[in-house]
Amino acid sequence: MSQTAFSTLNLKPELLSNLSSLGYEAMTPIQAQSLPYILAGKDVIAQGKTGSGKTAAFGLGLLDHLNVKRFRVQSLVLCPTRELADQVAKEIRKLARAIHNIKVLTLCGGMPFGPQIGSLEHGAHIIVGTPGRVEEHVRKGNLNLDDLNMLILDEADRMLEMGFQDALDEIIDAAPERRQTLLFSATYPKQIESIAKRIMYKPVMAKVESTH
Ligand code: ADP
Ligand code: MG
Questions:
Q1: Residue 20 is inside which H or E element, if any?
Q2: Within 10 A of 106 (CB to CB), how many other CB atoms are there?
Q3: How far apart are alpha carbons 92 and 74 in whole angstroms?
Q4: Which of 31, 74, 147, 163 is most buried as measured by Cβ atoms within 10 A of its Cβ?
């Protein structure tokens, strides 16, 4: 069990002070294993069970890299379901509380399409969504990924099981090649290994067997 404090990381001071007001002091093992690499800009594959704190691992990484003054989509988080995307967006907003004017937008299937176009026209820094709907917005020209510098696949194994491979490929094709890619998964089947080989650059593996 790791007891490394978040304060050992070189995080933006406003993120650090917000973490202590949230009562997050020690990193969970998956956070301790992945965050130093994520903050260093490396591609990371992180494997850990449900409840191990994966959201804050990538959430802190993307918030630390974000330039709030640049009102463009800089990070994209893809999740298998609307429920998971909503949870991730909620956690990112919580972690971002001390940073003013951050816009996090969710784009999920099963929700009306038109209002999402309106929201995209208003702009966002961070998009959290499901692959099918995000791909549709990219294909129709509603979502421009030219300024994307961080792509996160959350629960990648479930996204593949649900048949999102083609949508993922289309989104990745539309994203800049120079970017940081993070892949989170509970399991690491062959299919994940092969997608990682295609879309990641020298990924670091962070693996934790037990929950914290
Ligand atoms: P996972 O995605 O690995 O299933 P989550 O990211 O949803 O797990 O985290 C599970 C719970 O743990 C969340 O309620 C989150 O707020 C909490 N949590 C995450 N990291 C920490 C931490 N370092 N200290 C305290 N609570 C944490
Ligand atoms: Mg999760």
A1: helix 13-22
A2: 22
A3: 14
A4: 31
93 CA distance to ligand 2 middle (Å) = 15
pLDDT at 210: 57
Query: How many whole angstroms from 141 Cα to the centroid of ligand 1?
Result: 35
Distances (CA, A) of 154 to 44, 61, 73, 144: 12, 14, 18, 21
Ligand 1 center–CA 27 separation, angstroms: 10
Q: Is 21 in the pocket of ligand 1 (CB under 6 A)?
A: no
Token pair 């290994």 is at which residue? 193
187 vs 184: CA distance, rounded Å: 9
3-state secondary structure 118-183: HHHHHCCCEEEECHHHHHHHHHCCCCCCCCCCEEEECCHHHHHHCCCHHHHHHHHHHCCCCCEEEE
The ligand 1 atom nearest the CA atom of 154? 2
Q: Give the Cα separation of 123 and 104 in Å (integer).
A: 9
The predicted model scores a pTM of 0.96
Structural domains in the chain, CATH included, are 6-207 (3.40.50.300)
ipTM above 0.90, yes or no: yes
Mean pLDDT computed over every residue of the chain: 95
